[in-house]
Amino acid sequence: MNVRVGLIVGREWSFPPKFIEEVHRRDRGVVAEYVKLGAEAMDGACPYRVIIDRISHEVPFYRTYLKHAALQGVTVVNNPFMWSADDKFFGATLATRLGVVSPKTLVLPNKEYVPGIDHQESLRNLTFPLDWDTVVRHIGLPCILKDAHGGGWKDVFVCHTREELLHHYDHSGLRTMIVQEFIAWEQFVRCLCIGQRDVLPIHYDPQARRYHVDPDYLTPALRDRIVKDSLTLVGALGYDMNSIEWAVRDGVPYAIDFMNPAPDFDINSLSPEYFDWSVQHMADLAIRLAKSRGAAGATRTPHWQALFRGREGAGAARRAARST
Questions:
Q1: What is the pLDDT of residues 195-240, one digit of tens each?
Q2: In contact, 37 and 65? CB cutoff 8 Å
Q3: How buried is 107 (Cβ within 10 angstroms: 0-12 exposed, 13-18 middle, 19+ buried)?
Q4: Share of the chain residues as helix, strand and coil, in percent rounded to the nearest 5
Q5: Exposure string (b/e) for 54-77, b if CB count within 10 Å is 16 or more?
Q6: 31's torsion region: left (phi>0), alpha (psi -120 to 50) or beta?
Q7: Which of 16, 124, 152, 251 is most buried, most CB within 10 Å of its CB?
Q8: Distance (Å, rounded) from C-alpha 140 to C-alpha 151?
């Protein structure tokens, strides 16, 4: 009997049908299809061995269901527990601890809070006013102000002066912002990372939001370092589908953004060559995960730490549970 891979997508039209077609073309006993969800029961079984998640960061209902599916034994790409916990300040801290070069980063208290929060009574643990001179002195100018939980280049501001930084911070509303060292880069690379084993570095222009097919853009040594550091990051995060942006200054790659667990797979932006690479490697991943696991919905003991750590941690937890 065929095992099933489910696909949860948003407003993208090139990748989903090609991915489904490619999985079926392999004829490996795996079928891929769009997941259909309605009112789901807490004890309801999930019919999929694997679910590929492309949109739950925009649709909270999907994220809620995917955590339920993970508890049923479904392999979710990407792990919804890790994705829910991730943010850009955590990422900067993680990179530093792993020995991956990252821009200097500070996290800032919110500018505004939900109704009912009183600055004098509810926020007694915060220091007021914020010492902006120390912030600027530590990070330097220009700097980058961005949403700690954002993506897709939304709410990202290049600030050239202290006044500009304060202006954008004062208009950040309820968002938690980070301020980051600006890297004046000579080369900019976006890597597609699939299955914690395959990395494709691509010449990317962040101003034009455009990929360039340029296989000689990086020296072999720089390419090897970027691939190695990318694998280090996705391995620690447990992400099987991700993109990582690298700003290269003086020959050193800085990891500036790696919270992209629903990377761009659109043929119109990637180019046909890189699009085909994405489809092929995502089909490889889906089939490998579907064929390597036991029946969907298999009973297992929930190990929250393993769920947080991702697929490898969950596998270790299953082995531990079988030994007890």
A1: 999 999 999 999 899 999 999 999 999 999 999 999 999 999 999 9
A2: yes
A3: middle
A4: 35, 20, 40
A5: bebbeeeebbebbbbbbebbbbbb
A6: beta
A7: 16
A8: 23
Distance between CA atoms of residues 27 and 29, nearest Å = 6
**DSSP one-letter string for 219-266:** -HHHHHHHHHHHHHHHHHHT-SEEEEEEEEETTEEEEEE---SS----
CB 176 within 8 A of CB 108: yes
- SS3 assignment, position 78: coil
As a dihedral over the C-alpha atoms of residue 127, residue 114, residue 176, residue 107, rounded to 10 degrees, the angle is: 10
293: which 2 tokens? 């696991």
pLDDT per residue over 125-167, tens digit each?
Answer: 999 889 999 999 999 999 999 999 987 778 899 999 999 999 9
Cα 175 to Cα 147: distance, rounded to the nearest angstrom: 6
Structure tokens at 150: 């954002």
Residue matched to tokens 């990070």? 139
For 158, the enclosing helix (H) or strand (E) is: strand 156-159
Give the whole-angstrom CA distance, residue 290 versus residue 44: 20
Residue type present at position 143: C
Q: What is the pTM of this model?
A: 0.88
